[in-house]
Write the structure tokens for this entry.
Amino acid sequence: MLKSLADNVDTNSAKQCSYSLRLRLLWTILGTSTLMWIASITIMVFIAWHETNDVFDDALKESSYLIMAATTDLNARGLLAETDSGTSETRKVDIQYQIVVDNKVIQRTTKAPDSPFIPHFDQRKGFKNIDIDGQSWRIFVVRSSDAHFEVQVGQKFKKRLDILDELAESLTIPALLLLAMVGAVSWYCVNRVMKPINLTAHALTQKSRDDLTPVLLEEQPTELKPVVNALNGMLLRLDSALQAERRFTADAAHELRTPLAAIGMHVQLLQRQHAELAIPFQKLRNDVDRTTALVENLLALARLDPINQDGLKRQSVALTPFLQGLIDAHAVNAGRRDISVELQNQVESLNINPELMYIALRNLLDNALRYCPAKSTIQIKIRTASGVVRIAICDDGPGVNEEQHSRLGERFFRVLGSGEAGNGLGLSIVRRIAELHGAKLSFGRGLHTRGLGVFLDFPA
């Protein structure tokens, strides 16, 4: 059966249109990188164009200053008194020149030194880097064709660095914005591509003993299909094992009921026939009764296990008559020990399965009556608070140590030293019924900070 189911899963998966996460992620990265590259090139070209225009405009201005210096009458020292044409504007390019004849400067701009930038230049033209007063200069020298004079033009390296600083300032904000955009787009695209993995993980976290159906393979990426197929096979095997266990428990419990009932009848008959053995026979009857109760509880758990929360039939139940009927059913047992059972109800009705909830509340009330001493008080209180409907069954008996509260509800766990017979399955049944109703079972202090309080919290 498992093999056929697994084969069906594989066949269905083969028919479905598959895709690769690896290829999808690769194309996503390539696409976004290409778009970002185009955007970055566009921004850089725009800024470079703007900055280049500024540099050429400044070069045009500087050329006008140089022409003015070259065509203006010189003073006695051979330099122009006002190379900036009377303006206070900062010169970005700031080129200085010298006209040199026989290694002597006969004309120069104001900020140029009175000696040649490069004395005894032995080439017709060329570039050279020099230091003047601790500052680096870039010099270009060109000599006339008859070698009668030469022109030496210089510029401080600092001016070039200033231009680079302006360019860097212009690019900083767009580069940071582009980087942030790349990060945001990459985050979004990776999340979109990895979404199938998150959906598969979410589907697996929703699995429980009540839902071991295979995970759907529709729209699963190629990389995940082997993993999902393996998990589906494991879920099918686990579901089959649980079903076999439940059937065994139910069948065994059902088959034990008849012989146990027969044993109880025979013991009762022998007790009547042999009055002198009444006490040993009574102990045997008590053992048979405990075994019968254990079988009944095992059968109840076996019947509850296959039920899931979605398939539980519910109806609106008026709580006051429902709980009063529960109290009346235990009135004789409570009156025999002079135990008072009180009901305080503030909720009109609740959407529950009445049969299962009656079993849960009956087990809780049975436990309270069994473990409370004579003349105790048991209170059943229903109220709405903090968005939940709480059913609380509290007593003022001996209670349970707080360290053991977390273990209450475990199967076959019993508090030692109570002196009462039991099999440790009553609270397990209560917990299972609470789970089916979407309720939370918890334990705490009872009445007057004594005893035990059992709380069932239902979503309002």
Notes: The two ends are 43 Å apart (CA to CA). Confidence is low (pLDDT under 50) at residues 1-6, 8-16, 80-86. The first helix runs from residue 2 to 15. The domain at 315-459 is CATH 3.30.565.10 (Heat Shock Protein 90).
